[in-house]
Amino acid sequence: MSSDIVEQVLAGERRAVARLITMIENDGNEAQEALAALYPYTGQAHIVGVTGAPGTGKSTLVNELAKVYRRGGQPVPSPRTVGIIAVDPTSPFSGGAILGDRIRMRELAGDPGIFIRSMATRGSLGGLARATADAIKVLDAAGYQVIFVETVGAGQAEVDIAKTAHTTIVVQAPGLGDDIQAIKAGILEIADIFTVNKADREGADNTVMALQMLLDLDHASRPILHHGVVMQSGQTGDSSQEQRWRPPILKTIALHSQGIEAVVEAIEAHLIYLKESQTLHRRERERIESELNDILQEELMRRLLSRVKEEEWDELIERIGRREMDPYSAARELVEEGRCV
Ligand SMILES: Nc1nc2c(ncn2[C@@H]2O[C@H](COP(=O)(O)OP(=O)(O)OP(=O)(O)O)[C@@H](O)[C@H]2O)c(=O)[nH]1
Ligand SMILES: [Mg+2]
After folding, report:
1. What is the pLDDT of residue 74?
2. Which of 50, 59, 60, 62 to mutate to test the pocket of ligand 1 (most atoms within 8 A of CB)?
């Protein structure tokens, strides 16, 4: 059964892709065998994260970007296949946003070169990030060339998902964050491209200026990329040899398909930068390391807990509560009894 689904996914059969993603959502273990078999075929797609506050126009933008990739012609010479995963860490499965996305995305759905899927929290946020990473692998192995992952900006989940993406677009809209203080901390770490969407609304230029200032502050002492030419990193004593990419700030009106090609150009330029600066290799390493870490932590915990009786666990918690034992000693005792291997 598992080998069937693997072959079908590799052949790009949509129903198999959908079925495997459902298996991933329901229970990671069921899909593990298939994921292992698919793994050698992954690593081909360009994964583009799209994040931002609720309602900034992420879904509308992703639809427009997908159309440009499907159409081919400038700035993407030949059409590419597109996978879209919309992740909503804030709502359960029946979430309204997802329903809305289904309707919005219907216009793309007739195209066999596009696969659209929504995912929502069914357990922990960590579980969702993992499930999303696995769903991306399925689309990657199925041959989708560009994979967009839309997440509502909601703290850790968005950061986790940004780690999975090669290129992350942060979508802002006028009026939401027009001064530096209002722009969420941490956004600079994840943004490779900023779009100020809803540029038809008042205040778009203020938002652009605020972002510009934020980037100026961040880049003041660091080498930057000028007109596509990578500047040498010398002055900073930065031994990593990694040249910096300055995120472009692009105005869009996704609702009217305006400014979309410039975003596609930036996505493509960023991929070239990632490859030429060796950043792709480094990010990939970091991603693999963090994924392996997470899996190990979960697996070791699972093994340990499967060997500790519930009463025993409760008793331990009680003893720590009564201050008869401290949590470090308790953890050491559990581990040193060799129960987690
Ligand atoms: N005026 C204007 N409205 C837009 C633009 N882009 C999107 N919208 C509208 O903004 C609303 C939200 O758009 P979505 O694409 O659903 O935004 P989102 O960020 O995906 O929303 P969530 O997934 O719910 O966080 C919709 O009513 C869109 O039609 C734009 O460029 N200008
Ligand atoms: Mg959306």
Report:
1. 85
2. 60
- pTM for the model stands at 0.86
Q: Note the pLDDT of residue 235.
A: 41
Residue nearest to atom 2 of ligand 1 (CA): 198
Judged by DSSP in three states, 116 sits in strand
What value, to the nearest 5°, has the Cα angle with vertex 328 and ends 325 and 334? 85
The structure tokens listed for 74 are 């400038």
- Assess whether pLDDT exceeds 70 at residue 155: no
pLDDT digits (tens, 9 = 90+) for 27-36: 767 799 999 9
Q: Euclidean distance between the first and final Cα of the chain, in Å? A: 30
Q: Are 157 and 119 in contact (CB under 8 A)?
A: no
Domains in the chain, CATH or no CATH each = 1-39 (no CATH), 42-277 (3.40.50.300)
Ligand nearest the Cα atom of residue 204: 1
Neighbours of ion ligand 2 (CB under 5 A): 58-59
The ligand with the least distance to the CA atom of 198 is: 1
Report the alpha-carbon distance of residue 237 to residue 256 in Å, rounded.
46
- In the Cβ-directed half-sphere of 254, how many Cα atoms lie within 13 Å? 24
